[in-house]
Amino acid sequence: AAKAYKKSYPDLAVQALSQTITHLTRAGRFRQAADREKEIAQIYQHDLQDLRKACESLERAAD
């Protein structure tokens, strides 16, 4: 779903990716969750021009 929303509705892409992160984390798939968090950071940086939220996402990915 996130790919479909990415260009036209970046805020919805972030929501979809956040839900995916929740499920991946519960399943213990932390590396994949971190990759999705990096995707969120890119959306915030490039599409939504919100550097603060992009940095927060990258920090969560590092955890």
Automatic annotation (TrEMBL):
<dbReference type="Pfam" id="PF14938">
    <property type="entry name" value="SNAP"/>
</dbReference>
<protein>
    <submittedName>
        <fullName>Sec17 protein</fullName>
    </submittedName>
</protein>
<dbReference type="InterPro" id="IPR011990">
    <property type="entry name" value="TPR-like_helical_dom_sf"/>
</dbReference>
